[in-house]
């Protein structure tokens, strides 16, 4: 008879063989990957991870998708989850459980202008809930009748399901998956480095923000129900809007009765040096969606948080034939997992007790400063970011700002990894523009670890481009 720890044991070659023969890796397969061994991560501590061959890497990506906020190897999270699982692992979200109630209260402390929390299990699903709220409200609320269209921004990403992809402004993420859900309409992005209007900030008239009103008027204000945005565009290239952007956009939304949805899936929980990405701006969203850092990815969890006035639209009267079906008829199976809420409570406690948001702000300033020193290399075009969320856009030369090739970007990424550092990149998203390297380390990072990352990138650039 096996023991409860048998699954921790493995044979290296058997795992390598099983990885190749059994797993369908995310964002793969490619023929080249079929012919070579893939990295298999087996252990992590702090910002360091170790692969199955025993090689150690400094991870500057918080688990590859910017979500392990408190670092690897947090025993207290594992212990809290274990204790909760022994007591009560799960019951459907149509009922309550203690960890869900406690964590909902904690979230509302962090979002005092919002009042109700709906739990699910992924960022895509959190955004789907927001979309369904908009759509159902457009059917049952006389004040919002017909306001079913949802605007989204070029280069923003909102998830991998068909509706979430319908609201995603990244062509290569969407390509081949259509037809998409009707009623999603794109607005322009707000990147100063490659301004759509050939203007220079701050001498511009904020055309990128006022374009939202142009789209609403074109579509018909009576048909537009919401605008969803990432407070700082993530996978589309790390694009922080200037400070004037969101106040203008919010005024436009309020003018036409358009709900503003902030997708904090990436930016939330201290990533940008504030607890929420939108806290950098004078803005008051109607809904906030979140995932990733919610439980530091020790468990799968997401949430959709809304204002009371939105929740109240769905207060039905079962005895009234006209309003009987007006409640939000939605359920998420894993929204009832007590272990996920427990992990989120403990992860948030760590963030608070260890002042990790402040560390993100302080070390984030240092990270951006050090990355900007790389601009002495001719292939480094723009360096941008906020907190522990930075990006480098690579170009053939700084005069033309022509992007390097994807082949060159792939070689550069490999050379960084060859230095024992894992960084991210814009990947399979923007045609001809997947040339942005991104940095989103765990919030526990030190300045010494920043120096190690930047040194590895500098060495890799010199090796790749002989400069």
TrEMBL record:
Belongs to the class-III pyridoxal-phosphate-dependent aminotransferase family. The keyword Transferase applies. Its cofactor is pyridoxal 5'-phosphate. Keywords: Aminotransferase, Pyridoxal phosphate, Pyruvate, Transferase. It comes from the Bacteria. Its EC number is 2.6.1.77. It holds the Pfam family Aminotran_3. GO terms for cellular component: cytosol. This is Taurine--pyruvate aminotransferase.
């Amino acid at each position: 008879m096996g023991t409860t720890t048998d699954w921790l044991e493995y044979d290296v070659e058997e795992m390598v063989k099983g990885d190749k023969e059994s797993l369908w890796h995310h964002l793969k397969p490619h023929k080249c990957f079929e012919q070579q061994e893939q990295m298999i991560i087996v252990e992590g501590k702090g910002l360091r991870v170790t692969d199955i061959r025993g090689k150690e890497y400094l991870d500057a990506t918080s688990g590859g998708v910017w979500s392990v906020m408190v670092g690897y190897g947090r025993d207290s999270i594992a212990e809290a989850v274990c204790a909760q699982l022994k007591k009560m692992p799960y019951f459907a979200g149509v009922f309550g459980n203690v960890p869900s109630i406690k964590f909902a209260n904690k979230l509302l402390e962090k979002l005092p202008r919002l009042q109700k929390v709906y739990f699910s299990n992924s960022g895509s699903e959190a955004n789907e809930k927001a979309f369904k709220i908009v759509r159902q409200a457009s059917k049952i609320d006389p004040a919002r009748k017909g306001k079913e269209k949802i605007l989204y921004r070029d280069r923003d990403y909102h998830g991998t399901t068909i509706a979430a992809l319908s609201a995603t402004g990244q062509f290569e993420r969407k390509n081949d998956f259509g037809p998409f859900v009707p009623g999603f309409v794109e607005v322009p992005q707000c990147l100063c480095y490659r301004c759509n209007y050939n203007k220079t900030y701050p001498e511009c008239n904020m055309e990128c923000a006022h374009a939202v009103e142009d789209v609403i008027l074109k579509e018909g204000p009576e048909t537009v129900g919401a605008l969803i945005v990432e407070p700082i565009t993530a996978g589309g290239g790390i694009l922080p809007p200037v400070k004037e952007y969101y106040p203008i956009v919010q005024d436009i939304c309020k003018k036409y009765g358009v709900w503003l949805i902030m997708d904090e899936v990436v930016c939330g929980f201290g990533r940008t040096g504030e607890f929420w990405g939108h806290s950098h701006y004078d803005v008051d969203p109607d809904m906030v969606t979140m995932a990733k850092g919610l439980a530091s990815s020790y468990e799968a969890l997401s949430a959709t948080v809304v204002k009371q006035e939105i929740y109240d639209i769905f207060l039905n009267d079962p005895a009234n034939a006209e309003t009987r079906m007006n409640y939000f008829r939605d359920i998420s199976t894993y929204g009832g997992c007590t272990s996920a809420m427990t992990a989120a409570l403990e992860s948030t406690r760590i963030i608070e007790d260890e002042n990790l948001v402040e560390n993100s702000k302080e070390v984030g300033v240092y990270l951006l400063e050090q990355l900007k020193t790389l601009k002495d290399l001719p292939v480094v075009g723009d360096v941008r970011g906020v907190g522990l969320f930075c990006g480098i856009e690579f170009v053939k030369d700084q005069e033309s700002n022509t992007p390097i090739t994807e082949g060159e970007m792939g070689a550069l990424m490999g050379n960084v990894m060859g230095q024992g550092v894992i960084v991210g990149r814009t990947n399979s998203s923007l045609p001809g523009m997947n040339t942005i390297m991104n940095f989103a380390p765990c919030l526990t990072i030190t300045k010494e670890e920043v120096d190690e990352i930047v040194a590895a990138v500098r060495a890799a650039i010199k090796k790749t481009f002989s400069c």
